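We close this part of the discussion by returning to an individual protein. The amino acid sequence and the backbone structure tokens for this protein are reproduced below:
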Amino acid sequence: MDLGYAARPSEGWRLGALQPIPAADGRDADNPILVWLRVSRVPGWITTALLTLGTLLLRLPLLTPRLAHWDAVNYALGLHDFNVAAHQPHPPGSPYFILLGRAALALMGDDNAALTLVSLGASVGAVLAEYSLARLIFGPRVGVLAAVLLMTQPVFWGYGTMATPWTLLACLSLLIGLSSLLLIRGRQGLVLPSALLVGLASGFRLDATVFLGPLWVWAVRRSEPRWSRRLLALALVAVCVLVWLGPVVVWSGGPGLWSDRMLALLPSTDASIGARVRQFAANTAISFGTLAFSIGPALLVSLLGDWRAAVRWLRHLELRTFWILWIAPAFVFLWLVDSTEPGHDLVYTVALCALGAGIVLATVRTLPRVMVAGTLLVAAQVAVFLFAAPQFGRPLAWTANSMLLNVTAPGLRLHQASLDEALHAIRDRFDPRQSVVLTVTGQDPYRFMMYYLPEYRVLRLDPQTHSVLAAQGRQQGTWSAQAASECLVDGRVRYAVWVVSARSEVGIVPSGGTPLTSMNEGPFQVWEMDPGPEAVDYLGFKLGGDCLTN
């Protein structure tokens, strides 16, 4: 009997027991790995408690004091004013996540704390679901290793310390994957409950339902022979989606406006051939880099342990279709469309953690070596998260930052310190009644400034369409076209304050402006310029000159 084939419900295995049973003829008695697997197990509640405690202890000291992601700002604004048309939050809407956040807000009293509480809870749920999934397929010790690998996976760890929905995406992905596994293992009674899960998940994260949908449909087809029940399950999913999607579309201004906002999230189809090639190259580097980083170390350890057994395990991998349907839809879509947000990758990274733990314990045959291999894998991930900082001015630096480094502990510290310095620089120097804060499209500062500086007028400039989006009091207006002769600001404004990203393109940093922040590599850089008697042209927008008398 080979540990690598534990997923097969064959002779010598009892599905409900989830651990190997000696063959009747005693032929396994001399196999040390099987003897080791038959030792008394730690009670399940202790394992659950330790995994929960470990997940929380790794995150609580590193929680971000402010919102640390533009998406987090969208959701924070949505807690008070649900407006998908204004990206509060962005389409498709995630209304159930907003309701969950509002419940947490009633408890915590702070937007960031409320959404972080949800993220922490989802982190614990994902780790426990990872343990359950890997334990059911490969056995209890693989379950523990897979859970710890996910617990310390740098992207998952980083998002678990801030107010984002990505850990919830990981948790939902695992729950749908686990329910699909139970279906193909003969739990036919879960067809309708699993349909309810898949449908409700869409109201929290629609991508979980879309990317895991093929896996679930395949599992239902395998489990349920009756077409009437299959169609009923599909109808239940559709109803659950329409229950929230219909009202959200109506509240967003109708199907046309909602779809326009939705399509605007995708890469522009008007981009040049060169821009599309660069985007695809970046997607390729990030997607395959994420794949290599997620399962590459486990594959390397297994090949060093017993390369023949590793190759045999991969060639005869049980549930091959199950894994392909879980990983491939999300991976291919993100590779071809947009891979710049690593949180999306968690929908399939959680499956890679289980596979990585499975191949390690299938090829590393003794307890001491398993302990060493597991420790090395976990230590490597911990070291990356705690010490790997964002890179600048180096080849593939942007790719590495987008894929991973922006959400490591040093990356989050850099973000929070830069944001704090920018806010203090503006508040300590400029009267809100006489100042305007300027940002540009394609960069993150706008959302953070309009949220954290509600007393200021914050403008977002779009040089390509020569239009302006204004916000004040955390209330956002609509885009308005600006004629070349029009004044961007009137004479009441004495100070123009720019907040731009580090290493912005030429022309984004105002010519003649004075820097007010010291962090050259921080994501928020503040520049000041007094609109004087001479008109200033900034990306086609007019400041100063005769505008001062208007």
About this structure: Confidence is low (pLDDT under 50) at residues 1-40. The beta strands are 435-440, 457-462, 467-472, 475-476, 480-481, 495-500, 514-515, 525-529, 536-538, 541-543.
